[in-house]
Every structure is written in structure tokens, then in C-alpha cells.
Design brief:
The protein contains 8 helices and 11 strands. With 236 residues, it is an alpha+beta fold. The N and C termini lie far apart (70 Å). The structure holds flavin-adenine dinucleotide (FAD).
Length: 236
């Protein structure tokens, strides 16, 4: 009988120093794919909403070992960081023997646990350019405070000038096969509808029904978390 060699196709990348570290760049931040969630939590220069996101992944044991790159490449619909990368307009630096290229987060997740990398590419780093004038927001709704798979997870970014919203980005996870942007809600915010923009939620999402939540529950919660964020910054 041939014994299977279960380890023959596994590459240990922990020693790849080029994939490590969280650094400030001229434009923003380079977050190495091997950065753990604990390292993200400790990188106090990063946007607080991203640090908050890191603090909700699993619990401390998972945060000590789980990586930013693993979360992104795994591409679970419930991957807590994915909506944040979408609203931050992150770029993913990927490399192979053919060279290095960048994939915008908006083009990365192409289907259920599918992504735009080809088989021999590694995710090297995530690049973000947060603006100090932007309001960034993260909200995870799960059953518990820790070790909880999201029922709904929201990433949001709002830019306000002279009391008016001039940029609005919303993305949700645990709703569909991939994280999704909310274009109708975003347009309604920019059109001056304030917190009522959240009432357009059903035009942007048709949430899935699964063991964790019903579609109706997800729609209500998604509407509620967006409304509550908008009320905080644009008034009721
Ligand atoms: C108990 C438990 C609780 C969890 N809770 C949460 C949670 O609350 N929220 C959440 O989002 N996730 C959660 N997870 C899932 C997981 O731990 C995280 O998504 C974590 O960030 C994954 O990182 P990893 O390094 O362990 O990835 P791995 O599981 O090692 O990798 C995932 C996939 O990505 C590939 N991969 C990894 N890094 C790279 C790279 N640099 N380039 C190319 N491919 C790569 C791997 O080959 C694999 O196919 C949980 C997992 C467990 C076991």
C-alpha cells in the first residue's frame, strides 16, 4: 500500500521575512501578509477601526497565529477583515517567479472562496492609504464577543466636508458568497438622505439564509448597523 505523503504539497512560509512586518510608507501602510492579528492590534498607528477588526477575529489564540494574508486568501464570506479592505481601497501585492503585481481589493474576490491570484502566486502584502480626514468604522455582529463567526460584518468609510458627506463607502460580509459593496446606500448618502440612506439596503443585498441566520434577520441587522453609524455622524 502506498502511504500518502500529506506534507509534500505544503510550503511553510513563516520564515519568509519579506511577507512580515507592518510599516508606514510614504503614502500609508504596508501590512505584510504574515502579520498576525495580534500584530495588527499592536500597530497603534493603523486606523483604530482596523485594530478593532483584528480584535474580533476568533479570540487571542487565533489572533496570535492567524494572519492577515490567510484571512484574505481563504476568502471566507465571513472573513472579518474583507469589508475593511474594500472600503479602504486596499491593494494586494502578489508575487510569483514572473514578478510582482498589485490587485485592487475590489477585483480580488471573484466567487465563493475564489480569488484573482493564480496558482503559483503568493500574497506578499496589503497596501492601504487611509486619509486622516476619513471616518472609518467596523462593526461585527455575531453570537458572542469572541470565537464567533459573523452573522453580518460591516466596514464603512465616510468623508465629510463643510458638514456634507463627499465620499461614502460601505461593504458587508457574511451576506453573500463574497463581500459586497452597497452602491445604492452609498449614492443615497451622497445625495443627502442622511441616516435614511440605510432604508435602501434591500436594493443592494439579498442576504443568504444559513445555519447562523435567516435572510430577513441579516437584512434587518445590516440596515440597523448602517443606520446607527450614519446617525452618529450625519444625525438622525
Ligand atoms: C476557532 C477559530 C476561530 C476563527 N474565528 C475567525 C473569526 O472570528 N473571523 C475570521 O475572519 N476568521 C476566523 N477564523 C479563521 C482564520 O483563523 C482566520 O481567517 C485567519 O486570519 C487565517 O489566517 P491563517 O494564517 O491561519 O491562514 P491559513 O488557514 O493558514 O490559510 C488560509 C488559506 O490561505 C492560503 N494562504 C495563507 N497565506 C497565504 C499567502 N501569503 N499567500 C497565498 N496563500 C496564502 C493558505 O494556503 C490557505 O489556503 C477562525 C478560525 C478558527 C480555527
Amino acid at each position: 500500500m502506498v502511504k500518502p505523503n500529506l506534507l509534500k504539497d505544503i510550503i511553510n512560509i513563516w520564515g519568509c521575512t519579506g511577507l512580515s512586518g507592518i510599516d508606514s510608507t510614504e503614502y500609508g501602510f504596508r501590512i505584510g501578509a504574515l502579520s498576525t492579528w495580534t500584530e495588527v492590534r499592536q500597530a497603534t498607528a493603523l486606523p483604530p477601526a482596523l485594530i478593532e477588526c483584528a480584535a474580533t477575529v476568533g479570540a487571542q489564540q487565533i489572533q496570535n497565529r492567524g494572519t492577515v494574508g490567510g484571512n484574505i486568501v481563504n476568502g471566507s464570506p465571513a472573513g472579518d477583515s474583507l469589508p475593511m479592505w474594500l472600503v479602504l481601497d486596499a491593494e494586494f501585492e502578489v508575487a510569483s517567479t514572473r514578478g510582482v503585481r498589485r490587485i485592487p481589493a475590489s477585483e480580488f474576490w471573484t466567487g465563493y472562496r475564489k480569488n484573482a491570484m493564480v496558482d503559483d502566486e503568493l500574497l506578499v502584502a496589503v497596501h492601504i492609504q487611509p486619509k486622516s480626514t476619513d471616518i472609518l468604522h467596523y462593526r461585527k455582529v455575531g453570537t458572542r464577543m469572541a470565537q464567533s463567526i459573523s452573522k453580518v460584518v460591516l466596514g464603512a468609510r465616510l468623508r465629510i466636508a463643510d458638514g456634507r458627506p463627499i465620499e461614502a463607502r460601505f461593504a458587508m460580509g457574511s451576506i453573500a458568497a463574497t463581500p459586497v459593496r452597497l452602491p445604492t446606500v452609498e449614492a443615497a448618502v451622497l445625495a443627502g438622505e442622511g441616516a435614511d440612506a440605510a432604508t435602501h439596503m434591500a436594493q443592494d443585498i439579498t442576504p443568504l439564509d444559513d445555519i447562523r441566520s435567516t435572510s430577513g434577520y441579516r437584512l434587518n441587522v445590516a440596515t440597523r448597523v448602517v443606520r446607527s453609524f450614519l446617525e452618529q455622524y450625519l444625525g438622525a
